[in-house]
Amino acid sequence: xxxxxxxxxxxxxxxxxxxxxxxxxxxxxxxxxxxxxxxxxxxxxxxxxxxxxxxxxxxxxxxxxxxxxxxxxxxxxxxxxxxxxxxxxxxxxxxxxxxxxxxxxxxxxxxxxxxxxxxxxxxxxxxxxxxxxxxxxxxxxxxxxxxxxxxxxxxxxxxxxxxxxxxxxxxxxxxxxxxxxxxxxxxxxxxxxxxxxxxxxxxxxxxxxxxxxxxxxxxxxxxxxxxxxxxxxxxxxxxxxxxxxxxxxxxxxxxxxxxxxxxxxxxxxxxxxxxxxxxxxxxxxxxxxxxxxxxxxxxxxxxx
Length: 304
Description:
Number of strands: 9
Distance between the termini: 67 Å
Radius of gyration: 28 Å
Helix content: 25-40%
Shape: globular
Structural class: alpha+beta
Order of helices and strands: HEEEHEHHEEEHEEHH
Low-confidence stretches: none
Mean pLDDT: 88
C-alpha cells in the first residue's frame, strides 16, 4: 500500500537547496501546483536582497483563517509571515541575516515551510480538539472548508469524538461504480479484528443529516466519507499529529489507488484478449491447397 507524503516534498527540496547556501540567491523563481490545487511560489525580489519569499495560495483559505488558521500561523510561522502577500493568500519571508547558522536548523525551517498545507488544514481540527479538551467540553458547530475547487472538508465534534468528513466526486462517470466498491470496503474493513483500533469510517451516498443547514454545492458529489477519531485513542500525545496529517491525504490516496486499480484491470483485459486471440489462431485448421484449384490471385495451381 502506498502512503502519500502529507508535506510538499518538492517545496522542501527547493528550500533545502536554497537555504544550504551561505548567502541568499540573487535570482530565484519557482512555481509549483500541488494535487489539491494549492499553488506554491518561491522567488526573490529586487527590492529585498538577502531574502527568499514563499507564496502560498489554496482554496478555502478565508474559512481556514476564521477557524484556527490565524492562531496556527502566529504560533508556528510568526517570525516568517510577510505582510506584503501580493497575489497570494499567504507570504513567508526567509531572511538570511536572521536564519540560524547551523545547517540542521535550516533544514528544520525548510521542513516547517513544506508542511504549511498540512498545518493550515489541521488548524480547524485543532480548534475542534481544543473544544473537546476544555472543561467543560465545548462542542462547536460544524466547520466547512472548501479545500478543493471540487471538494469539501467538514469538521464536527461530539463528546470525546472528532469527526472529519470529505466529499467525493468524479468528473469521469465511469469511475463511480469502481469508487463505490472502494468506499464500501472502508465500511466492511471495520469488521476485521486486526483493525479494531482504527478510526470508524462511515460512507453516505446521500446528504447526511450532520450537514443539515450547511450551504454548499452538492451537485456532482457522489458520496460523503466520515472518519470518527476517539479523543483518547487517536488524538492524544504524539498520535494526534500523525492522525491530523494522515487524514488529509485521504482524497489523494483514494484517487491514486482507484486509478491504479483501473490500470491493472485494463492491463488484465488486454492480456486475456491477447491470450484468447493466440489460442484461436492455434486452433485454426491449416488449409491445404490442392492442385487444379485456383489460388487467391486467380491463377490455376499446378501439381509439381
